[in-house]
Amino acid sequence: MVHSQLSGPEETPARLRTAGLRAEVINRARLPFGRVLRHRPAWLRERKLVTDRMTEELVVIHAEHA
């Protein structure tokens, strides 16, 4: 699965492991905001979800049955 840094991706592997899966982060990439986030910079800043950079980190998480 792919998670934005805004979705708390560091918690996801632990939650998946609790559900009985093997899970790990297998890749990360910092990219410019996509179409949705690009139109909401003020909203994101108000909630302290982003800095002035218009980028986000995407995290790829691999999970499978243990």
Detail the topology: elements first, then pairings.
Elements lengths: L1 E3 L7 H7 L2 E12 L2 H4 L2 H6 L8 E11 L1
Antiparallel strand pairs: 1-3, 2-3
What can you see in these coordinates?
The chain has 66 residues and is α+β, with helices and mostly antiparallel strands. Helices cover 26% and strands 39% of the residues. It has helices at 12-18, 35-38, 41-46, and strands at 2-4, 21-32, 55-65. A three-stranded antiparallel sheet has the order 1-3-2, with helices on one face. The two termini are 17 Å apart. The relative contact order is 0.34. The model has no long low-confidence stretch (mean pLDDT 90).
What is the ordering of alpha helices and beta strands? EHEHHE
What portion of residues belong to β-strands? 35-45%
Query: Helix/strand-derived class?
Result: alpha+beta
Shape: elongated
Low-confidence stretches: none
Q: How many strand segments?
A: 3
Span between N and C termini? Answer: 17 Å
Helix content: 25-40%
Could you give the order of strands across the largest sheet?
Answer: 1-3-2
Please give the count of helices.
3
Question: The biggest beta sheet, please?
Answer: 3 strands, antiparallel
Instruction: Calculate the mean pLDDT score and round it.
Output: 90
Q: Radius of gyration from the CA trace? A: 14 Å
